[in-house]
Design a protein that fits this description.
Largest sheet: 5 strands, antiparallel
Shape: globular
Strand content: 5-15%
Mean pLDDT: 77
Radius of gyration: 30 Å
Number of strands: 11
Distance between the termini: 93 Å
Structural class: alpha+beta
Helix content: 55-70%
Number of helices: 25
Length: 567
Amino acid sequence: MPDAGDGRARYRRILWFAGRYIMQSWWYEVILPRIGLARFAARGRTARLVRVAQRFRVLAVDLGGLMIKVGQFLSSRLDVLPPEITAELAGLQDEVPAAPFPAIRQLAEAELMVPLERAYASFVEAPVAAASLGQAHSARLAAADAADNGFDQVIVKVQRPGIRAIVEVDLSALRRVAEWLVRLRVGAGHVDPRALLAEFTATSLEEIDYLHEAAGAERFREMFADDPRVAVPDVVWERTTRRVLTLSDATAIKIDDVPGLRSAGIDPSEVAAAFADVMLEQFFRFGYFHADPHPGNIFVAPVAGSRSGEAARPAWRFNFIDFGMMGEVPDTMRDGLRRLLLAVASRDGHGLVASIQDVGFLLPTADTVELERAMVQLFDRFGGMGFAQLRTVDQREFREFGKELTAVVRSLPFQVPENFILLFRSMSVTSGVCSSINPEFNMWDAVEPYAARLLREEGGNTIVAAAREAVSMAGIALRLPQRIDALVTRVNDGAVTFASPGIDRRLIRLEQLVRRGVGAVLFAGFLIGGILLIPHAAPLGIVLMCVSALPLVYALVGGSSREERRR
């Protein structure tokens, strides 16, 4: 365990690094522009940002602990950090030298309260994986435990000795950094550093609690209990504590091992498509998802037997491991995500921006005209392209469009709700994994069939949503004539005057058109509602279709304005 002196040195080193580059950012991005040197400050911005990210990578790998997690966490914050930094941090790997085995043995035996030789029939000293918070060892269960669980090959995760003290030091330093950011207003308007740190703290503390990870594995298994594509290792509860976790061995072919997949007779392109679909299920159906689906945590395991109708091709499944970092999306936000998904699938720029605003990424007062235009251009130019196709696009076009879109986004009150930070990370990793398996992978091809299936399976919910939308539109439409009447009355009373003498006639004509428009809206609402309800409630559907005739007549021959009736 690190002593107090080591902890103080670590604390000072983190603060020195953060303070130095916060002041650098403040100087170039705040002070110089205020004294008329904005162009000078912008000249070397990209090179400065890349250097900061590279130096942070060196610091994170050297210190370990939470610093690697900080880099991975920030790499998904495209709304806060410039792309030069997030791109550099995206490749930060949680791989560090293994802890000495005597220290691992001591911690494991203290947790399990028995010698390793009694807890396991065998225990391999060399770890199969080592990370900043813990490491994993291959082992075999003792005969009695193997008989109870039905298997003997296991993976044992053991926390790094002293890691809790290191985490406390790191979090203490990060709290101080967050206070600096608040006082200097760095990133103001886009993110609350205290809220961001609170989420990171909660995630980090959960990740060093192996009982939390075990519970996450059980919940994940229940979610996919009826899906043969997904398997989850079994938890050996008799050999699991907060700092030691024993799971059935689920290792197989790493998902990005393309030669290994092909040698097993598995088509990588099929794996990429299936993996995207499985992750979409987590995001949009269950609202509980694996937040760190990198290749080291996903295996492809051949299954005995063959697929029905495809005797020559072996069956396989995904083995998910490492459930320490899991994300959850509330039901209300999940509905917004589904609408966003459908907007993306239909290349609807306006609908996409509206969904982004509904979910909470943009404040209600945001002027989204330019963002809508940028989204429409994005879909028109790049929509439907796969990774390989995008590589053929002129890089200058990418850069120009990226600069334009970045400028638009940064000009808006853009924010990422706390619940979505892990979701962004998981989506980003998923896309990268699929493209690494199959360079021709097209995310549109995964999203569109999933969106269509989602609509089919939620037909009842779609009807309810459509009915609510129709009621809302009808309410707005019914209030419009009253508002126009009030405006016309004010004009007639002289409360509002206009320079143009023909404005009265135009308002009267507008009122008449709106009244007839109300009739048309109600007619369409009743008619469509009736059609949708016939398969589920035929009598009510027929009644609505018949009632739709009344507003139709009103739309065609009625709707005369008050002034016309006076004449």
